[in-house]
Amino acid sequence: MIRIVFFGTPDFAVTCLLGLLAAEGIEVAAVVSAPDRPGRRGLQLQASPVAALARDRGLLLLQPERLRDEDFIATLQSLNADLFAVVAFRMLPEVVWSMPRYGSLNIHGSLLPDLRGAAPIQWSIALGDRLTGLTAFSLNDAIDEGPIIAQTEVAIGPNETFSSLYDRMAALGSQLALSVLHEIDSKVHPRIDQNRETMHRSAPKLGPEFAKLESLGTAKMVHNRIRACDSAPGASLPSPLNPPERFKLFSSYWHSVGPMSSSVDIHYIIDNEGIKIIDAEGYADILEVQWPGKRRMQTSEFLRGSLLRGSFTLNGQKFD
Predict the structure, then answer these.
(1) Which residues contact 101 (CB under 8 A, 6 or more apart)?
(2) Cα–Cα distance between 41 and 32 in angstroms, integer?
(3) What pLDDT is recorded for position 62?
(4) How would you write the chain as a 3-class SS string?
(5) Among the listed residues 319, 138, 165, the one whose alpha carbon sits nearest the alpha carbon of residue 227
(6) How would you classify residue 117: left for phi > 0, otherwise alpha for psi between -120 and 50, otherwise beta?
(7) What does the angle CA 262 – CA 268 – CA 270 come to, to the nearest 5 degrees?
(8) Angle at the Cα of 282 (from 110 to 222), degrees rounded to 5?
(9) Alpha carbons within 13 A on the beta-carbon side of 278
(10) Which of 83, 239, 283, 306 has the fewest CB within 10 Å, making it most exposed?
(11) Which residues 6+ apart lie within 8 Å of 234 measured at CB?
């Protein structure tokens, strides 16, 4: 029996925690998650998905504001855990990650050392990757740079959205964690140091600009960014009717038709057939939209209720 403390916050971590709770030979002594925060309207506190699950299962739940808090450290030490399992959580100080005899295990949503950072799944789609993966590694004093224990590859479909890939990778991440935990005291998974000197792509936290499409240079890049922003926050463009407002695009499907004339600049077309982002290499067919002040809907439904037609630049201006 291996005794662990689980650290996690979002839905991605919930899937892994559920797998660990159902597994034989693993005891979850406690769960650490973010403190409850006010809801969107600030009326009442909202628990993170992991914290909600821990309460539902009657698990010991720790929600420290500061990870160096003396009472929190003392509680962790009293649990005598063999290992800390960390999935989608903030960086741990050394006094925490070095505490258990087997150290701390992290599951990251990329094939490290590629795409270190807070949003590897979204960035992998946005960059047009056809292959990504999951990495189990031991935490150290640098973000996502600890020794690699095991990896598994994950194919990305050409039109796959973030929400679809996220769900698949969460399930696979749970399986990877279980595999490593069941063999943590053997040499089945030797640790491989990451090369800190080699340059690799990063996956920084997403800001508001990530969802804005007008600065992207090709229709394929727009297609990939739409997929990366589904289902939230939704990729967006300035409205051609009222440019300060923005409309959102979802469920993009790519069609390669090129190479056509190199003079075909990137633009979008709204006609009776649909909404398309087009350039010389092909076009992205937009299957769902959300117009300012409206609900998310199928593009065909939007077209039935709107007379807006034409060709526009990504900045919402008329395209000639």
Answers:
(1) 82, 83
(2) 25
(3) 98
(4) CEEEEEEECCHHHHHHHHHHHHCCCEEEEEEECCCCEECCCCCCEECCHHHHHHHHCCCCEECCCCCCCHHHHHHHHHHCCCEEEEECCCCCCHHHHCCCCCCEEEEECCCCCCCECCCHHHHHHHCCCCEEEEEEEECCCCCCCCCEEEEEEEECCCCCCHHHHHHHHHHHHHHHHHHHHHCCCCCCCCCECCCCCCCCCECCCCCHHHHECCCCCCHHHHHHHHHHCCCCCCEEEECCCCCCCEEEEEEEEEEECCCCCCCCCCEEEEECCEEEEEECCEEEEEEEEECCCCCCEEHHHHHHCCCCCEEECCCCCECC
(5) 165
(6) left
(7) 135
(8) 45
(9) 18
(10) 306
(11) 211, 248, 249, 250, 290, 296
User: Do 300 and 275 contact (CB within 8 A), yes or no?
Assistant: no
Q: How far is CA 63 from CA 51, 166, 217, 223, in A?
A: 8, 25, 43, 39
CA-to-CA distance for 145 and 117, rounded, in angstroms?
A: 10
Asked whether the beta carbons of 240 and 310 are under 8 A apart, the reply is yes
pLDDT > 60? residue 261: no
Query: What whole-number distance in Å separates Cα of residue 265 and Cα of residue 262?
Result: 8
- Structural domains present in the chain: 2-182 (3.40.50.12230), 208-312 (3.10.25.10)
Q: Looking at residue 3, what is its pLDDT?
A: 96
Work out the angle at residue 112's Cα, subtended by the Cα atoms of residues 158 and 149, and round it to the nearest 5 degrees: 125
Question: How would residue 44 be classed by pLDDT, with cut points 50, 70 and 90?
Answer: confident
CB atoms within 10 A of CB 59: 18
Judge whether 286 and 266 are in contact, CB under 8 Å. no
pLDDT of residue 220: 96
Contact 251, 237 (CB under 8 A): no
